[in-house]
Design brief:
The structure is a homodimer of 351-residue chains. Chain A has 351 residues and is an alpha/beta fold. The first copy, chain A, has helices spanning 44-50, 100-103, 152-155, 161-171, 187-198, 212-219, 230-234, 254-257, 282-285, 299-312, 326-334, 347-350; strands at 3-10, 19-26, 32-42, 67-74, 86-89, 92-94, 114-115, 120-121, 126-127, 135-139, 144-145, 179-183, 202-207, 223-226, 240-245, 260-268, 290-293, 318-322, 341-345.
Chain lengths: 351, 351
């Protein structure tokens, strides 16, 4: 298979900083789209993967799965896109396309889904590489259309942080008059607030920090409950239809379960790490409450979200960085020192 | 308020055996039905309550919430029942009737629901007493009609063991072609198998004991998976739409979560005790799987179940005992030495 060398940022080991390297991108097959990458969001998973926190990284790794750019070349059989189209790529670049999940537009639950990085590129017989690079080549079925009215950089985080919160909001039927709570105000949490608000829900932010009240309200929350304040917590007992828990480390879910209404569901969307929570089942039994997990979203659902963002003029709140600052950005991300997502301007790589 | 003294079986302390005692039953108010009790099922909760395992028992306590009998008297405003009707009473004898849960026929989740025993009888200003007694007086709205074609003793456990498994089967929309698993083969488990089978589902029993295979199949299971056999467990990974977990003590839920299909739900209906389970969230996230709790069922849903049992000729598999043998029965129940429910023939109390 023909390929070409492009510039990227990645790392060859868990201990090393990310640095510039060359990678191969395959030539377009009949169904492929080649994309010139303009912006790539920086996700917590990028850092976890670069540092092998999940014990599954194959090196070298080039992270990045919140990709926005323009089509520069199409394969002979491509029908959905043409050169010059503004497009996006999220966390998935392929799946088996034949299993029940794929048939149900739930490619993210396909046992053979191919991650945008760290997956397996069957054409090149090598690992897939992500969006910290000049270009990417992706099957058109896994390419998304970006509404032209939206800021290109601001839309990048929608591809992971956005869809990860959108999918459970839609699956658990959040709409007008739903009572939704969001736990944690980071990349995912701030998108969850914006999206639930735009869906017409009454939105509550749970935060441990009184400093987050002003920001939570500005993003669209109707109230902020300080989760360490017993009186405030008591005021929302039995209240919520859906809670989106975005906190990406081990924490106690039980205080939130009591705030669910009858038939309510708490959805975990962050990776809680090896210290999993104890689950107190009595409050679940006494109100037919559920704890669920949810993973990103399917391709059709991600397109639905991008179109929704276009219609409601929703983008992520971001801080644009140069690729050369990615290691500093990782350190700041570990301290939650970002409001609310870093996005790499890929011109910095091409310069 | 007028009342009359009737014979019952109960206990005045956590340490004492149950023995015969006298209790007061109120005279019928305009909306009340007086019931001559023929049979009363013996539920694990009876034992927990008698021994104050949940730390909330007020003594003396008279257990029993799987009650079948005939109407012997009705209040002036009763419209649903007449003297001589075959009726039943389950776990609830009242609720607030005005909250959202009550309006939604979910009286079991009303914060003010009144238990058949250990609740508060507002007419007598005293604790409610259960079915281990000659008679009971209950508001007609909490009385159920029993299909005449069914064995009276066999229908008693439907009022708790049956509805506890029926409610989640219906809420999670089990029907033809659903793949359902049942964890544990006791009073609840054997009803869950019968009901899921009658709903048209493909039913699997999870059991730790190879001795249960024959019985599980005889009750209607299509297969029995020995949960300690890794190969058998691997054969059902990603398989089930709904798992009804009936095991009434602390145990590890995680091996079962992996056997749920995408969007599948494991429903805990047993009280797991103070040792609550660790929840490994990754398999939940990777397949949008849920863990939920469910508590008995509402009055309308319990009537629906009794009618369903009448239509499908379903009763519980029982062992009939005399009230004088209740303490022995409790000891055998603790050793799971019952197939699958004790039912007290209340003639033994009246003799």
């Amino acid at each position: 298979m023909e390929s070409k060398v492009v510039k990227a940022y990645g790392t060859a080991s868990a201990e090393a900083d990310l640095k510039q390297m060359n990678i191969n991108r395959r030539s377009v097959t009949p169904k492929d789209v080649e994309i010139d990458i303009h912006y790539c969001g920086v996700c917590h998973s990028d850092l976890h993967f670069a540092r092998n926190d999940w014990g599954m990284t194959q090196y070298p790794v080039v992270p990045g799965h919140e990709i926005v750019g323009t089509v520069t070349k199409i394969g002979s059989g491509v029908s959905k896109y043409k050169v010059g189209d503004l497009v996006a790529v999220g966390c998935l670049v392929d799946s088996c396309r034949t299993c029940d999940n794929c048939k149900d537009d739930l490619e993210q639950y396909c046992p053979q889904w191919v991650g945008t990085y760290g997956g397996y590129d069957k054409h090149l017989d090598s690992p897939t590489h992500g969006g910290y690079s000049e270009t990417i080549v992706v099957d058109e079925e896994f390419v998304l259309r970006v509404p032209k009215n939206l800021d290109q950089a601001g839309i990048a985080p929608v591809l992971c942080a956005g869809i990860t919160t959108w999918s459970p909001l839609k699956h658990w039927k959040v709409g007008k008059n739903s009572k939704v709570a969001v736990v944690g105000l980071g990349g995912l949490g701030h998108m969850a607030i914006k999206l639930a608000d735009a869906l017409g829900a009454h939105v509550t932010l749970f935060s441990r920090s009184p400093n987050k009240v002003k920001d939570g309200l500005a993003l669209g929350a109707d109230q902020v409950i300080i989760s360490t304040d017993e009186e405030q917590m008591a005021s929302v007992m039995g209240h919520f239809d859906v809670i989106i828990d975005t906190v990406p480390y081990a924490h106690d879910l039980n205080p939130y379960i009591g705030t669910l209404a009858t038939n309510g569901t708490l959805v975990v969307v962050g990776y809680l790490g090896p210290l999993d929570p104890m689950l107190v089942t009595v409050p679940m039994i006494m109100g037919r409450r559920s704890v669920a997990g949810s993973l990103i979203g399917g391709i059709a659902e991600t397109q639905e979200l991008l179109d929704f963002c276009g219609k409601h003029n929703i983008t992520s709140d971001i801080e644009i960085i140069k690729i050369q600052d990615i290691n500093k950005a990782y350190e700041r991300m570990l301290k939650s020192d970002v409001q609310y997502r870093f996005v790499i301007d890929m011109k910095s790589l091409k310069a």
